[in-house]
Amino acid sequence: MSFLYPNVFFMMLIPLLLLIILVLTNKQNMEKYFSKEILEKLAAGKKGLDKNTRNGLLFAVLVLFIIALARPVMDKKDINVNQKLIPIVIALDLSKSMQATDIYPNRVSLAKKKLKDIITLSPNATVGILLFAKDSFILSPVTEDFVSLNYIVTNLDTSVQLSNGSNISSVLQATNHMLNDYKVKNLVILSDGGNDDSYEEELEFAKDNNIAVYSIGLATKQGSPIPEKEGYLTDKNGKIVNVKLNESIKNLSIKSGGGYIDFSLDDSDAKAIVQRINAQSKKEELKARQVKVYKELFYYPLGLAVFVLLIALSSFPSFKRKAANGLVIAAALSFYPISGYSFEFEFENIKKAKNYYENKEYDKAADEYRKIPQTPQSLYNLGNTLYKQGKYKEALKTYSKIVTEDERLEYKKLHNLGNSFVKTNELLKAKEFYEKALKIKNDEQTRQNLDLVNKELEKQKKQNKKDKNKENNKNKNNKNNKKNKDKNKDKNKDENKEKNQEKKDKKENKENNKKDQKNSKNSEGKNSEQKKKQSQKKQVPISDMEEKKWMKMLQDQNTPLFIQKVESKKGKNDDEHPW
Questions:
Q1: Where do the DSSP E strands lie in 255-311?
Q2: Whose CB among 57, 86, 227, 412 lies 3.0–4.6 Å from 312's, allowing a Cys bridge?
Q3: Numbers of helices and strands, H then E, in the chain
Q4: Residue 113 and residue 95: Cα distance in Å, rounded?
């Protein structure tokens, strides 16, 4: 026998020792809180398991759990397993034509999605990835690690600039190199069809090397121009290039023994390609892998631990009812940091609080309820007491603290919350809690309270409408009065202005007549000089000069063009269509 995880023993040893030390050093904790007389009264006798035996059983349970976690096994062996998979190479076209936008957002984005779909739909395959334009680049060799493949494809930057053109021949050569050790060779091309009108040489190469070509046509028959930074791609004659689907790749795929399908926005095209590959291709038998085989034994210590745990927890001795009640009370109170004899006073506080509440001494009842540990029922009783005192806001806070799964207590809480909100004149909240209470229990009293609240809310709405109408009427009257006053003021001002202007005009006319009489002799010479000066000023105004200056600057300014003609020069080794 051996263990798969022996480190568990070392990791759990220290916590187990600390737990044993804590238990052994805290044997007499009960004596810190209770006197010997009280402990003797609460003792259950020695007919059953004593404390040390029970602790020993619990420690044995922990040891058995640790052994189970260490995973004991038997007959551990290494077995060779043969694995059969279908080898596939997926080639992604990253040429310029794949940036066309006849497929939203562009062809290469959809191609990337199809690449991920094929990887996901091929669990029984070993997959490699190629990137190609004029040349081909291996992004990932053939592998079964689909987690790494998905990570690589997800983080692939499809805007990378490769050499121009779509060279299918280089893709076939790279595929043959990647699948050189395999008898079965499958190639999936994600492209708009490339540049050539015929793939006869490529077809011969595929047949000679037993490569089955499958392709998804990622373009439309109408085509689309190729966007660039400053417009669209043009040919050597300056015309905008419109790239359509090249259907020649369809003939290459079918004649090579593969298959072809047009793109779809969902994954139906990828499913069709994968199904065709699975139907036509034989699975390649890969190298044998060693797998460890063993017989699990952890359930034996685990089952024994559960059995011992049941004995340790259920083996209570038989003793009198009073002693049992006392032991249960002492065990419950041992979890609370309270002083000695507190459990005796709790029941006395409850009795006193009930008596005070029945005698309508609500202040004293509230004090007694506050001394009791907070439970849903004690909080409910305290909230009722505060409500009777008229402390509605405190009652709301107390009711809000109640969290219970008892539907009856939950209904009472919601009903009393509604009553408290009515007292604080928060009718909308009261309506909300009455409705919640009715969902739990259809009570007549709650429904009547809800009806009264709804009627009061309708009255308030009507009253608010009346008040708004009155305010609107007042505002309208005030505005009209102000307008009339302003109009009267404006009229008076205009009349006063006209009168003052008439007086001024009369005075000026008199003064001008006097001046004309005095200076009649020299008036002709002076007037002629003034006319000459005025005519000179009118001939060369400053605004005209500024206008001419800016007009010349605007005429000399060149307007930038957003679409520029791009010239391309064909070299010796360039393809006929370098996109």
A1: 259-262, 284-285, 289-296
A2: 57
A3: 21, 14
A4: 17
Alpha-carbon distance of 319 to 334, in angstroms, equals 21
Q: Which residues touch 416 (CB under 8 Å, ≥6 apart)?
A: 380, 383, 384, 387, 395, 399
Strand order in the sheet with 2-3: 2-3, 72-81, 289-296
Give which of 91, 250, 116 is closest to 177, Cα–Cα.
91
For tokens 């417009």, name the residue: 231
pTM above 0.85, yes or no: no
Cα separation of the two ends of the chain: 67
Structure confidence by residue, pLDDT tens digits, 537-559: 444 444 566 666 655 564 454 43
Kind and range of the H or E run holding 348: helix 342-358
528 — pLDDT class (breaks 50, 70, 90): low
Element (H, E) at 470: helix 444-518
Question: Is the CB of residue 262 less than 8 Å from the CB of residue 269?
Answer: yes
- Rg of the chain taking only CA atoms, in angstroms: 48
Of 361, 297, 322, 327, the closest CA to residue 67 belongs to 297
Q: Which strand (E) or helix (H) includes residue 148?
A: helix 146-154
- Distance in angstroms (rounded) separating the CA atoms of residues 146 and 144: 6
CB under 8 Å to 59, separation ≥6 — which residues? 16, 20
Give the closest residue to 116 by CA, choosing from 160, 87, 86, 147. Answer: 147
